[in-house]
Amino acid sequence: MDEIRELFRQMLDENLIQIVLSNTRDSTQGTKTKVRPIMLKGVLHFQETIYRGTQVFHSNHLKEEMLERLFGQMEKLYRQAQVMNTHGEATVLVGRKGTVKIKRRAKGDGEAVRDCAELSHNRSRQYILQEGKPVDFLIGLGVQTADGRIVKAKYDKFRQINRYLEFIEDIIDKLPADRTIRIVDFGCGKSYLTFAMYYYLHKLCQRDIHVTGLDLKAEVIAQCRELAERLGYENLEFCQGDISSFGGVDQVDMVVSLHACDKATDYALEKAVKWGAVVIMAVPCCQHELNGQIACDKLQSVLKYGVIRERMAALITDAIRAGLLEERGYDTQILEFIDMEHTPKNLMIRAVKASGIRSKGNVMPEALGEMMEFLHVNPTLKELL
């Protein structure tokens, strides 16, 4: 562990961009910690942000105090650290038996490593993709101008892309590091987030990946193919087709399904489970199925209002989906995801396959089964699985 302490000591200066601690051993104490440098009254401090469930805690510390806090968290709470400064980056992995592995990478000429532009306490939020720094796919999709400025009408999309990459940043250590990561993006549409995922994992994180984007619209797929070819994004392919009939793949490590309408999300989740995908990220929309099924006398005084019934049906649909994934051996969360195209906020189902947990097959937890019986609902995903 002395290697970790020395790494943090070297990195905690004005050249630091960010330190991210993840892969927690106890989510009640924190799921992630981020550290960045700030200047307070002319003195260099480090702002610590701890994510614990839905809560976020901020505090500012001088170098020696921050060093001890970081080291203590790595010793007792986290198994991974991603450290980045203006000269390069390092990844720290702590094994279950306490073994430590540190991988360093220096910044090369023209390499897209995030720089620390300033240390003002009131500086703008440090996104993974930053304003003022041109990114080829953002320019190609009309989100950025050639000099890196964000197009005013696309700023919400820029925020959404960065939020999405933060979700991926949280789970990157769950993806295989010793082989090509196979990813399928169902219902990719114009593929803002597909390109972002490829850029982040391959260009910024230097991971070996193969991404397939699938959508029903031939015109959209043709445009995505043209842009990927123009940018030289090898191993990023786009196919026209339907989720339910998509095949020809034996193993997939990560399945993404953003805004697949109604039952299409269920078909995407089914394929992910049967492939044994390590990570599933789904943002469902238009959850109509249960809206037409729910029949419960005890809730009739509430369900008689159309908009209430619709929202309850959508929430219950996604809660059941999360429960069914848990029964198949996934640690599942339902998170709030920024999206301006459908509703101001959408829910993301993020599921990570838990190590050492075997699928329970067709066994459903008693409470989940009783709830479905109480509401007289039979969701598609239950039948598919």
List the helices and strands and how they pair.
Blueprint: H1 2-11, E1 16-24, E2 32-40, E3 43-52, E4 55-61, H2 63-76, E5 78-85, E6 88-94, E7 100-106, H3 136-140, H4 155-171, E8 181-186, H5 192-204, E9 209-215, H6 218-231, E10 236-240, E11 254-261, H7 263-275, E12 279-285, H8 300-303, H9 306-327, E13 330-338, E14 345-353, H10 366-375, H11 380-384
Parallel strand pairs: 8-9, 8-11, 9-10, 11-12
Antiparallel strand pairs: 1-2, 1-5, 2-3, 3-4, 5-6, 6-7, 12-14, 13-14
Helix pairs in contact: 1-2, 4-5
Characterization of the model:
It is a single chain. With 385 residues, the protein is α/β, with parallel strands linked by helices. Helices cover 33% and strands 28% of the residues. A 7-stranded antiparallel β-sheet has the order 4-3-2-1-5-6-7, with helices on one face. The radius of gyration is 22 Å and the shape is globular. The model is unreliable at 109-124 (pLDDT under 50).
Number of helices: 11
The number of distinct β-strands equals 14
H/E topology pattern: HEEEEHEEEHHEHEHEEHEHHEEHH
How much beta, percentage-wise? 25-35%
Strands in their spatial order, largest beta sheet: 4-3-2-1-5-6-7
Percent helix among the residues? 25-40%
Question: What spatial form do the alpha-carbon principal axes imply?
Answer: globular
- From the alpha-carbon coordinates, what is the Rg to the nearest angstrom? 22 Å
Mean pLDDT: 87
Q: Which regions contain 5 or more consecutive residues with pLDDT less than 50?
A: 109-124
Biggest sheet statistics: 7 strands, antiparallel
N- to C-terminal separation?
Answer: 44 Å
By helix and strand content, what is the structural category?
Answer: alpha/beta
